[in-house]
Amino acid sequence: MERIIECVPNFSEGRDRAIIDAIVKTIEEGGRKAICETPGVKVLDVDPGEATNRTVVTFVGSPEAVLEAAFEGVRKAGELIDMRTHHGAHPRSGATDVLPLIPVSGITLEECAELARNLARRIYDELEIPCYCYEAAAQRPERKNLAVCRAGEYEALPEKMQDPERRPDFGPDHFTERAALSGATNVGARDFLIAVNFNLNTTSTRRANAIAFDVREKGRPKREGNPITGKPMKDENGKTIMIPGTLKGVKAIGWYIDEYGIAQVSMNITDMNATPLHKAFEEVCKAAGRRGIRVTGTEIVGLVPKKAIIEAGKEYLRKQQRSLGIEESEIIKIAVKSMGLDDLKPFVPEEKIIEYVMQDPEEEARKERLIRMSCKDFANTTASEAPAPGGGSVSAYMGALGAALGTMVANLSAHKPGWDERWEEFSRWAEKGQASLQKLLALTDEDTAAFNRIMAALSLPKGTEEEKLARAEAMEAATLYATQVPLRTMKAALEVFPLLKEMAVKGNPNSVSDAGVGALAVRSAILGAQLNVRINAAGLADKAQAADLIREAEEVASMAKVEEALIMDTIDKML
């Protein structure tokens, strides 16, 4: 899974567009110059506020790119914003006031917390800007609360920095000239926040609020006598006693929206693990139903991680006892229809799901040139005089077709009349098949990309001894990669045999021949990819490494022949 994090720095400037633009430009450039093979960052939103004199910037990318972009943004803000003259309605302690890192996919909150602490250390070490660590990155329990870190705001820093209990986690023990200019930055890590509104078939704000109080973690005040108009009850410390709601990590209120002419429950899900999006939807539906109200749909405000939508789609497939081993776009469609995400306006995944928004359409089209083709175009392109795609890509695609056939039999079996009690068994197999299918489809294009690397190395200059050496090194690296890719194809295809064997023995008997064709396709994919391993390994200067790769390929090919023979023997006996 691709590792993606979000960063939402708040800069203490909301009025001077030139300063805001300069900071945003620096963030974009910082993401591009990150020392990694991943793409740079993508700025999703820039939201300046004049009254608050504050701008919220939202950007996403790989951890390496985001950290570099965030550091450069802090540096530029420290150069352009003078906190000695800053005034605004929002609490603040520094030119870059808050700098949270948020896990989106392929990375945990704990990992983001460690990245945040390292970033705070770097900001102080290299820029001399003091830093507090808050929320999940906090190094002291009380500093999990941002308000504790920012207490007294910028004006309190001279006193706080001399106090061992209140000084920054990374910073000096006195108020420096650098701190006077830039203030202190609060660097943290928190979970992704999903902002969502649930549409109701009522215009009553009161009813919408009642539903919100039912579900939000804070709940509602406990009252004497009448639960609505009675006096709120207090504990021995004078605090209002609350009746908790049903959902953890959720804040919610009810309101009326003139634009739509309906009431909504407006919700922030601050802990997706405790309360997934679909669980929130179901709870609001229950609370609304108790009041004779229906939830007509759901409105995602801003962006949402793919995980939240995929989890929802899979949950509703489970409720229908349908296989989860289907294409990602179909799972998303189930989620959209189940929660009414298109109730008020079309839900366009490419515009609402973070991972899709991050994608560069041109780059994706380049990476998936072959698998985006029609079957006819793929065959015609292969048949042309162009040297690629060739046997390696065709082998990977044959493996993908074998995985697709096994997945098809699993899905048909999961939905077979009379086999309802076995749907989960076949669904698990279909999910495994779907994962293999996607892996082999990616290898279809990667094999051609590997060949192109060799052609690029061959075109390098060779006029001087240095150029000859560089060309030779590039050729060796490209040839090694071109050998490793078909070996990966062989291993990925080998993983499909257990699925095909299970479907041949236990799957829908009407589809046993499809399992057989799948086995033949996978065997051919493996033997075909083996030929590519052998021919490319022959070009390696490192003969010991070449021999190891060829030997490994032979082992996989031998296993494939045995697996295919067993499956075909089983099928022959059934036909």
Short description:
This protein is α+β, with helices and mostly antiparallel strands.
Protein model, in words:
- The chain is of the alpha+beta class.
- It has helices at 17-32, 63-80, 109-127, 146-149, 157-160, 177-182, 205-215, 277-289, 306-319, 328-339, 349-352, 354-358, 361-367, 375-383, 391-414, 423-458, 465-494, 497-506, 512-537, 543-574, and strands at residues 4-7, 10-11, 42-49, 54-61, 96-105, 131-135, 185-189, 194-200, 220-221, 242-243, 250-257, 262-269, 295-301.
- Strands 1, 2, 3, 4, 5, 6 and 7 form a seven-stranded mixed sheet that branches. It has a four-stranded antiparallel sheet with strand order 11-12-8-13.
- Strand 11 (250-257) and strand 12 (262-269) form a beta hairpin.
Layout of helices and strands, plus pairs?
Elements lengths: L3 E4 L2 E2 L5 H16 L9 E8 L4 E8 L1 H18 L15 E10 L3 H19 L3 E5 L10 H4 L7 H4 L16 H6 L2 E5 L4 E7 L4 H11 L4 E2 L20 E2 L6 E8 L4 E8 L7 H13 L5 E7 L4 H14 L8 H12 L9 H4 L1 H5 L2 H7 L7 H9 L7 H24 L8 H36 L6 H30 L2 H10 L5 H26 L5 H32 L1
Helix pairs in contact: 1-2, 2-3, 7-8, 9-10, 15-16, 15-17, 15-19, 16-17, 17-19, 17-20, 18-19, 18-20, 19-20
